[in-house]
Amino acid sequence: MNDFIDYINLDKKNLNKIILNDFSSSWSWGQIFYEVKNYEKIIKKNINKNIIALPIKTSRSALVYCAMLACIKLRIPFVPFHKDTNKKKIREYCEKFNSIIYLETDYNSRNKKFFKLKNINLKKTVSSKYKKILYILFTSGSTGEPKGVMCDAKNILNTLLWSTKYLNWKKNDIIGNVTQFSFDISLFDFFTSLYFDVPMCIISKPSNLDISIKEIKENKVTSIFSTPSFFSQFNYNKKINLLSKTKFKQIISGGDFFPISHIKEWKNSKKKIKIYNVWGPTETSIVNSMHLVTKKDLKNLNLSIGASTNKMKLSIINRKKLIHTPFTEGEICVSGQSICKGYFLNHKSYKNSILKINGKNYFKTRDIGYFDNHKDFFINGRKDNTIKISGYRINLKEVEKISNTYKNVFLTACYVKKILNTIFELRILVQLQNKKIKFDIYDFKSYLKTKLIFYKIPRIVNVINKIPLNNNGKLDREAINKL
Questions:
Q1: For position 1, what pLDDT does the model report?
Q2: Running DSSP on this structure, what letter comes out for residue 111?
Q3: Which residues of the chain have pLDDT under 50?
Q4: Going by C-beta distance under 8 Å and a sequence separation of 6 or more, which residues neighbour residue 20?
Q5: Class of residue 192 by CB neighbours under 10 A (exposed 0-12, middle 13-18, buried 19+)
Q6: What is the pLDDT at residue 145?
Q7: Domains of the chain (ranges plus CATH)?
Q8: What pLDDT, on the 0 to 100 scale, is given for residue 144?
């Protein structure tokens, strides 16, 4: 079976069960199915037979859940894109995917669930290979041009079945959704809710902690999967303990490094909360490894991302050779069922990301790391974040990770500044936990000298109010490099 609809048993869902909450109302399966039928009618009436995929303008409403489910039922791949995408880009999406419409999921446009574009250049024929694709998700483009990652039902089913090794969903569990539905973490929320029949609450304003805490409490949210920046907000505003009287019990954090100092505060809070450090590129079906953090882990600066498993095979590869020796650094590569079906209209780039060894395909993630004696994997940084100054190679993530451990530092971001045609210098932005406490740059550099080799010490240290983050909650490298 290649269709995801075959796996989710919609006919067995309890129509009266509340499966979704958003800022507007609570939704039962029966209400969801009603909205799904409305979307299905719109899609059938307005699409052409050669459609490749259907673009969906996402929002923080239950309608995005309904729109994606309608596409799954009709066996049409969906393409979620950010709500702030400009009209020119939306037109490009529609032309790429041979669609004259895109679906709307904002309550402000509820009477207009779709928009029809004029003068779209439609392709007369398209390849049949797209018929088995479940969704196409564009990467953030933080390391180049965004790529359309194509995943099918088998990719996602592999991820969901793998996740049961770590996440044991109970009857009273409720997923709190805080990331954009144009980001793969939200798709994990969506597919988990759909497949395991776990209710989901869409937090209306994740950047507003007071609203988030109120909605977590009112909707009895037990688990949230997000980037570290969401959870670190609680540290920054000293509001972790406001969750002590809620049902919240589980953090799933991925997409970036979770500062050890922040994790320590969570572990020492009044509320006993499980913290999972997870890892996985969009190209390998959202998540590939998971590690339950213990207090023992917090003694080290580097936190494990978890171990390789049968459904999620991780390997360290250096110079096209598999590494079998612990603590030997190389690129983390993924093999097996989780590898996506390619990049949309970018076969060359996808081909370059695949390494074949002994007839087996390995996806090159560009993350640099190693495994230890217990076969737990660790990340040191990314190839994309490794720069060269005066002949020395410096991994920005390594410098940031150490810098984040200095007293009163909330977050840091390293970047390279061009001084003259051939002269570059390493700089670092620092966001303080408490702005009222004086920051001693000399002492900060002295601290770094005890942890890092001399050429990795930033020449310039700039203290700023807030370090730029992108829509997915990761460091906005493009904005940082312009400072």
A1: 37
A2: T
A3: 1
A4: 26, 27, 32, 62, 65, 193, 199, 200, 201, 202
A5: buried
A6: 74
A7: 4-292 (3.40.50.12780), 304-381 (2.30.38.10), 390-481 (3.30.300.30)
A8: 59
